[in-house]
Amino acid sequence: MNGLKQAHGNWVTGDRFWNRDEEMAQFERHIREGAHLLLVAQRRMGKTSLMKQAAKRLADEFHCIFVDFQNSSSPQDAISELALSLRPHMSIWQKASGAFANIIDKIDKVGIDDLSVTLRAGLSEGNWQTKGDELLHILASQEKPVLLLMDEVPILVNRILKGGDYEITPGRCQTAAAFMTWLRKNSLEHQGQVRMVVSGSIGLEPVLRQAQLSATVNNFVALDLKPWRPETAAGCFRALASGAGMTYLSGAEDRMVELLGCCIPHHVQMFFDHALTYCIRHKCMALAPSLAEEIYKTEMLSSRGHAELTHYEERLKMVLGTEKMGLAVEMLTEAAVTGQLTAETIRRLQPDFIFQGETTQEVQKEILWMLEHDGYLEQTEAGYVFVSKLLREWWCGRHKMFFTPIMEREV
After folding, report:
1. Co-location of 241 and 210 in the same domain
2. How far is residue 167's CA from residue 403's CA, in Å, rounded to a whole number?
3. 188 and 237 in a common domain
4. Tell me: the pLDDT tens digits for 320-339?
5. By the 8 A CB rule, do 152 and 70 touch?
């Protein structure tokens, strides 16, 4: 078996990009057909890696432009980031810089940090749409079509909608609507010349739904990235071991797959990294199933594992806000501790929470829809259960100590 080099960081391409042939084929087919794409998946599924790898594969057919909105909080920030992303593409940048000629002088002599600040300072509530339209028109006028890969759009829209205090206000909702309407208008106007791909570490649809803006992406084709199949994850474990000079005893890699339960690519990588570190430290490069279990319990579920998994809780609060987060934690902890969240336990929670302008039942429905959409829980005949064994056990370890299951509480 060919070895696979370990991946470090938030995305991978080339030889480190593992087994997404089916999704890549769908991605390329939709793009070549002129569609806009909305990448849908739970966290750490490899959406950014898929976009980066697609950009490498399609570079001969398209101008592939990657924009990261991770640090953007407003439409003005977004247009500034879009402009800056064009700088590596000199033929496009020369035209795009003309759109900002009235903002900065001698634009090509400005350093990238100064350029970012200057561009942002020149954008306002009154001109961001016009400047954005100019940039999209320039992209659409290129001889070769443009593939515009936009990462962390949900984070951007969520910040526009809720600010730093996680509160939706009429003014913020109006601004979010203006941005999404602008994006939709340009996606329709330049269909074919500019193919847009939208992705992010939280789901876009739950954010848009909160602002009643779901229709703004109904012209995007959803591409769902599923967890790896068990055999794919086991193959990845074997390839990583081959690349690192490590071996498995008695099907240890299959036991690692069982322990994860849901094979999210980043969690597979994370588990292997802990296993390899352990083997190197103890100068024994053979891993047995019992040792894999020990590493899972002492490393994956330790504070070091928490550093990676805490993002699940942080992203949840980002979407739901502080007020609704308390109820979401109760519901998730019930599912983690008892193994399932039933209709009866959901009903019994309702008297404990009061929300302004919404019933607790309405809020619970919103939370459950979001938890399903973003891959925390899935519905079974018995109730809602965690999709990932790793996430369930981590959540249980974090919240179980001071939690009493709902059916054991005094009424």
Report:
1. no
2. 28
3. no
4. 988 899 999 999 999 999 99
5. yes
